[in-house]
């Protein structure tokens, strides 16, 4: 960059953002995550990329002796920061989920004696894994680098949307290998691999596919693998000793240089001779449709062998994504936290279609995405709260495509239901509620989704009336989910009631008043699980009585999913005033909230709930899990907005840090990070499908949001400091904002939102 162009850039960029001419990408730290829970994703990907190429650090099995192995939870994302070894680099990962799958197509470079098993962390020399040091590790958006100590190989990774690009710098060797482990996976077990096919097309091209039965019951991923250097020799190890029928393929020696391979448990090696510092590169493309499409994806996205060019192209995509919000914050640490949150909020859902627009649908047929990008991996129990509203604010066209993807899912579903947790042409049905309706209603009501709104309403109604699913039939008949039917009966009831309110708002918007009245009434069903004798939500039996054995502090076995009565009793986001009245009014709710944040929740009460850890708890407030994310904002209706302001700033400081253990709980596909972004800006969507944001206390000094409609929203916090957490006044475009809410529609018109900060309440 010449000095005149650099000077011009510095002049036009907002004050404080690029004071030294540095990019926003440099403020992202991909290793920030939940190290203790293993949900860090440090590898290479582009925004919402189908390929998420990252190191896996161990091979912990899902089950031991037929029983769930709790240690596997640490490896939801494949990478555990405290591990001393790397097993290899696989191409698909989740970001911050509380369950897992994926870890497809693991690649590992080795030198010397060929070893076709991964070995163990305490004896890496017995396998192809390698020791490594964080001192020799670099993680950036769309780039990962690490020195593998045992083979002396420098590994570098980058990607495009559908292609992983590996660059391995070898020492001089007559015995260098690339291992392709087609058995490897995350949350793995013996019968997870249903079938694997590999074709060695020539001395540089390998294609194939793998079908697995895991969190997604029928998941098939196709691949094309291209080497920059011809293979000297190759071989296959089939580890399926239990296979009785061998067929007549035994006429061939299938272990050495045999190009037509199939089985359940395959590992392959590709052998080379290398000079000192010689680079062997691999392009590895994936497809949901076919091997031919995988190869076409490779040719379309990375037709060259220039690693740095691919890296820079991906980092430019990240720069474009991050520049949608430019912030001026008090410290470099604050800036790292903010842009790392934006990074986390652009990892998932992932693109799920080929470069030609084809994808495999829920019906297992091939579909063509017409006029939209198809996505998968919707962790909706988490992301409906703030992540999808965040996209409606800064990335509405992408969220519109996600709604189109959900509608495609519905149309392909033989159960006629919108996704609950969509995952690679499957629904894994994880968590509770039918929160697609929240995302769809919010997108339509905010003018984001331009598709057939009446068809969307029909899909929402059909899903909400799916009687066989998790107590919905009883919910419709009785007004609550009985504890006799579901172990998470209370949280199901509360979440269904909120979703029903979303449907009511959409129906009203579309003039369907009969649907509106029906679902307006259903939205009040939360009252049916409130026990006024104790002041908490409580499981109710089919005969109408409340469950006798009940503990308001326990997070398991009490009718709630990943939470306790203290937190879930506040989950009525669509009717907080009604909830407050039921609880006894403003003073009672204020005391309740004060106690929630200040009391102590002993470890014994969440010992059996693996998604809740001490790091994510403040008092008895569980920020590390999503049902409580709106809670700090409830002081606004007790007439004590200063308490909302104080609590929000405290949570921002307490739950988000730099470093490997920087998050207090599962990021859950961007929800924890979306909370951080909204709250840092000073407002939050307490009830998506409403046009309202609730005001809090911004932690930024100022921010510039480049809206997709071409307008600009400026947020300023005057007299901002760590001590000045209280808001004396808020203005929008020079006019004072009365009350504790501001409209999404107003913000989307652009302008200046100003918070006047003070150290006094």
Question: Tags for this entry?
Answer:
26% helix; 9-stranded antiparallel β-sheet; globular; Beta-galactosidase, Chain A, domain 5; alpha+beta; 18 helices; 761 residues; 6-stranded mixed β-sheet
Your description of this structure?
The chain is of the alpha+beta class and 761 residues long. It has a domain at 31-314: Beta-galactosidase, Chain A, domain 5, CATH 2.70.98.10. It has 18 helices and 38 strands. The protein has a nine-stranded antiparallel β-sheet with strand order 8-9-10-11-19-15-14-13-17. A hairpin with a 4-residue loop joins strand 13 and strand 14 (205-212). The longest helix has 21 residues, at 489-509. It is globular. The protein starts with a helix and ends with a strand. 57% of the residues are buried.
Compact overview of the structure:
This protein has 18 helices and 38 strands.
């Amino acid at each position: 960059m010449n000095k005149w162009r650099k000077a011009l850039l510095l002049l036009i960029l907002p004050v404080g953002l690029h004071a030294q001419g540095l990019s926003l990408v440099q403020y992202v730290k991909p290793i920030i995550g939940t190290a203790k829970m293993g949900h860090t994703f440090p590898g290479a990907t582009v925004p919402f990329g189908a390929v998420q190429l990252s190191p896996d650090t161990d091979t912990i099995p899902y089950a031991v002796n037929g029983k769930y192995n709790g240690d596997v939870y640490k490896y939801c994302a494949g990478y555990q920061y405290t591990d001393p070894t790397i097993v290899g680099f696989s191409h698909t990962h989740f970001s911050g989920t509380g369950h897992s799958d994926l870890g497809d197509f693991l690649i590992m470079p080795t030198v010397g004696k060929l070893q076709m098993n991964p070995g163990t962390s305490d004896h890496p020399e017995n396998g192809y894994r390698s020791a490594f040091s964080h001192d020799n590790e670099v993680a950036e958006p769309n780039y990962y680098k690490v020195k593998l100590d045992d083979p002396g190989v420098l590994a570098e990774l980058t990607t495009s949307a559908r292609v992983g690009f590996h660059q391995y710098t070898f020492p001089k060797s007559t015995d260098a290998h690339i291992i392709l482990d087609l058995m490897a996976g995350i949350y793995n077990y013996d019968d997870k691999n249903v079938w694997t096919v590999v074709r060695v097309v020539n001395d540089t091209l390998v294609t194939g596919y793998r079908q697995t039965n895991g969190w997604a019951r029928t998941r098939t991923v196709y691949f094309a693998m291209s080497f920059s250097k011809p293979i000297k020799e190759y071989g296959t190890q089939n580890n399926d000793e239990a296979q009785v029928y061998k067929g007549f393929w035994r006429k061939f020696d299938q272990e050495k240089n045999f190009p037509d391979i199939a089985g359940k448990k395959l590992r392959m090696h590709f052998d080379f001779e290398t000079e000192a510092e010689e680079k062997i590169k691999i392009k590895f493309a994936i497809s949901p449709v076919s091997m031919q499409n995988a190869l076409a994806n490779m040719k379309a996205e990375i037709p060259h062998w220039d690693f740095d060019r691919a890296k820079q192209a991906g980092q430019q995509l990240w720069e474009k994504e991050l520049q949608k919000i430019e912030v001026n914050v008090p410290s470099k640490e604050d800036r790292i936290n903010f842009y790392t949150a934006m990074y986390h909020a652009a990892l998932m859902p992932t693109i799920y279609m080929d470069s030609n627009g084809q994808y495999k649908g829920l019906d297992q047929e091939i579909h063509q995405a017409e006029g939209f990008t198809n996505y998968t991996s919707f962790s909706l129990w988490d992301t409906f709260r703030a992540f999808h509203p965040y996209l409606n604010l800064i990335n509405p066209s992408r969220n519109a495509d996600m709604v189109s993807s959900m509608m495609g899912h519905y149309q392909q579903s033989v159960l006629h239901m919108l996704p609950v947790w969509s995952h690679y042409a499957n629904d894994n049905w994880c968590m509770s509620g039918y929160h697609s309706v929240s995302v769809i209603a919010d997108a339509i009501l905010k003018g984001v989704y331009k598709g057939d709104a009446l068809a969307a309403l029909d899909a929402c109604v059909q899903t909400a009336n799916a009687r066989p699913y998790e107590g919905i039939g009883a919910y419709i008949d009785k007004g609550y989910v009985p504890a006799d039917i579901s172990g998470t009966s209370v949280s199901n009831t509360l979440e269904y009631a909120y979703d029903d309110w979303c449907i009511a708002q959409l129906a009203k918007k579309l003039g369907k008043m009969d649907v509106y009245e029906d679902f307006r009434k259903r939205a009040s069903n939360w009252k049916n699980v409130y026990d006024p004798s104790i002041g908490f939500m409580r499981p109710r039996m089919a005969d109408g009585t409340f469950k006798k054995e009940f503990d308001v502090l326990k997070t398991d076995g009490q009718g709630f999913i990943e939470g306790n009565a203290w937190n879930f009793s506040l989950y009525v986001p669509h009717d907080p005033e009604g909830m407050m009245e039921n609880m006894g009014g403003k003073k009672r709710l204020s005391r309740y909230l004060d106690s929630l944040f200040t009391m102590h929740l002993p470890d014994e009460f969440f010992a059996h709930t693996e998604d809740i850890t001490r790091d994510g708890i403040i008092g008895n407030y569980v920020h590390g899990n999503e049902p409580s994310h709106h809670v700090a904002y409830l002081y606004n209706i007790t007439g004590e907005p200063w308490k909302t302001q104080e609590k929000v700033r405290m949570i921002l400081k307490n739950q988000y840090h730099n470093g490997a253990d920087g998050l207090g709980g599962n990021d859950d596909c961007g929800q924890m990070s979306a909370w951080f972004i909204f709250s840092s800006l000073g407002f939050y969507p307490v009830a998506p499908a409403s046009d309202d944001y609730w005001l809090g206390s911004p932690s930024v000094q100022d921010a510039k949001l480049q809206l997709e409609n071409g307008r600009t929203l400026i947020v300023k916090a005057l007299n901002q400091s760590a001590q000045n957490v209280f808001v004396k006044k808020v203005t929008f475009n020079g006019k004072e904002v009365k009350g504790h809410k501001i409209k999404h529609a107003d913000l989307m018109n652009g302008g200046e939102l100003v918070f006047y900060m003070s150290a006094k309440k």
